[in-house]
Amino acid sequence: MRTVYIASLSRSGSTFLQLLLSSHPEIVGLGEIAHVIKTGGVPTARQAAGGSDGSCTCGHPAADCEFWAPLMPEMAQSDEHALHRNILARFKEQFPDKLLLDSSKSEKQFAKYYLQPDSGAGDLRVIFLIRDFRGWVRSVQKHVRKTPGGSFIYRSYLATSYLWYLKNRSIMQMLRRSGVSFLCVSYENLVFHLDEEVERILRFLDVGQVPPGDLDLGKAVMHELFGSPTIRSSTRHRSQVVYDQSWFCDLRYVVRSPLMLPVLHFNHQVHTKLAKDRHKSGPASGMPVCQESCASRPASSASDSCTDTKTSPVALAECGRAVAKD
Hints:
Layout: E1 2-7, H1 14-21, E2 27-29, H2 33-39, H3 45-49, H4 80-94, E3 99-105, H5 107-114, E4 123-130, H6 133-146, H7 157-178, E5 181-186, H8 187-192, H9 194-205, H10 229-233, E6 241-244, H11 252-255, H12 261-275, E7 289-292, H13 313-325
Parallel strand pairs: 1-3, 1-4, 2-3, 4-5, 6-7
């Protein structure tokens, strides 16, 4: 039994990473297993309002899915830990030669289900996916504005930036203490240096190397009941990397930089440390990268960066470091 867990904050690109890895012939994604256990495989009111009907990505309702159907009667009856072990055992039975991909993300759920002596995960590895704090804050705040009753704390740029810092640092510390083998992956590096990052991830997972150009997102093998409705239903998002570049124009972190030194330092440290494993070749990929336009462009030289399709995540991190020094 081989298992890989994606640990990250929400809105950090975990659905895309799962879709990408599930396109590999040796990997099958089950989505957020912890959430399936928590909800009993039934969409919450919020998920239903967002368009989720609880159907599996294989195209069948959960009750008719070849993977989930035998497990559905257990959802409301089994102990959570027992149910999690049964899900892993079911996977081992149906996909004996495959690697299970769990994108539950949560630090707490990882400790609850996998840091137990009888977890049943076998050879367990973790991908710690982290997004540049400026892109994450922008994405979260856009989402909160669209969500009725969204938390007030996310409306503050400074508070949201520190949430990113504290939560990601907590995940990293937990993984270091756990002794589990893990790999840090920058979402920006994954998007702008796709070939090299995919090679690095597959090497870490000890599966066969496949050129990223041969990874067809539309043919990913997944049995996911929940996840991003946009990526699940959008042909565009399943045929190319769509990167939201609107934060390139958002200079609020510059104004607040004296108050954000720990955030800027951590952001810089993560990206530059990750970049050391990459080769020196420029960004090239077998998969097209589409950058979504900014909602509005300020009349300043900063807006020029919004059209630069080759912006390096390392250069962006260096920009944050320069601001911190100033």
